[in-house]
Amino acid sequence: MALLVGVISQKGGVSKSTIARLIAREYAAAGWDVKIADLDISQGTSTDWKQRREVNDIKPEVAVEQFRTVAQALKHADVYDLMILDGPPHSMQGTLEIARASDLLVLPTGLSLDDLKPSVLLAHELVKAKIAVEKIVFVLCRVGDRENEIEEARSYIHKAGYATIEGSIPEKTAYRQASDNGRAISEVTFPTLKQRAEQVVQGIIDLLSEE
Ligand SMILES: Nc1ncnc2c1ncn2[C@@H]1O[C@H](COP(=O)(O)OP(=O)(O)OP(=O)(O)O)[C@@H](O)[C@H]1O
Ligand SMILES: [Mg+2]
After folding, report:
1. Which of 46, 118, 158, 174 is the most buried (most CB within 10 A)?
2. Atom 6 in ligand 1: which residue has the minimum CA distance?
3. Rounded CA separation 105/135 (Å)
4. Sign of CA dihedral 159, 89, 46, 69
5. What residue ranges do the domains of the chain occupy?
6. Is the minimum distance from the CB of 95 to ligand 1 under 6 angstroms?
7. Where do the CobQ/CobB/MinD/ParA nucleotide binding domain residues begin and end (predicted)?
């Protein structure tokens, strides 16, 4: 059975797919057999991203497939070492199904209260639905350059009872362009941005290696 990582949020555009691709790319580069299950049927953005990756001949290849339901994705999980469930926005049912299936749940969130509060509420909902709190981890995404703002957001999440991945992903044109070109955010050329993406994914790899 593959290791399963769910990347989820009730909100749209918080970087779920960006983080899903980052994790998938790093494991694929390490020789793992990885698939992103694109569960966002209405948009299919990771499926489009894979096509851009192919057109631009970027290696390693990262497999992406669209699945209508989590159950269907799970039927195909056996042949992989790792499956990343790239969740849809605005679907509590879909999110819960991902949560139940996953070994680790990654919740990307922005720093504003408008982002943090619903993210923590989602985590509370998951715990209420008997998802182990140890499976849940937040990643601070689309952050600005104020260190104190980042640390305040981190402490908000910790006070609510949840863990965060060390480091954060800044909002940067270079990341957007990388994604537009079929790259993961660890495949940017700017060394500091590459490093920040790598630090975040290393935190996720560390958690998964405890599984
Ligand atoms: N740190 C960042 N800096 C710049 N652009 C970013 C960053 N993170 C994400 N983006 C861009 O923002 C858009 C939304 O990101 P992404 O698709 O990862 O979010 P999502 O949570 O999967 O959205 P959806 O809810 O629509 O599935 C994409 O165009 C992506 O390239
Ligand atoms: Mg998405």
Report:
1. 46
2. 176
3. 6
4. positive
5. 3-209
6. no
7. 7-183
Name the CATH superfamily, with its identifier, for domain 3-209.
Answer: P-loop containing nucleotide triphosphate hydrolases (3.40.50.300)
* Cα-based distances in Å from 87 to 72, 100, 189: 14, 13, 28
**Residue carrying structure tokens 């699945």:** 67
For each of the chain's 211 residues, which pLDDT tens digit applies?
A: 799 999 999 999 999 999 999 999 999 999 999 999 999 988 989 999 999 999 999 999 999 999 999 999 999 999 999 999 999 988 888 999 999 999 999 999 999 999 999 999 999 999 999 999 999 999 999 999 999 999 999 999 999 999 999 999 999 999 999 999 999 999 999 999 999 999 999 999 999 998 7
In the block, tokens 């691709």 appear at: 21
> What CA–CA distances, in Å, run from 153 to 99, 136, 163?
23, 16, 12
Q: Which token pair is 190?
A: 């700017």
Buried b or exposed e, range 36-62, using 16+ CB within 10 angstroms: bbbbbeeebbbbebbeebeeeebeeeb
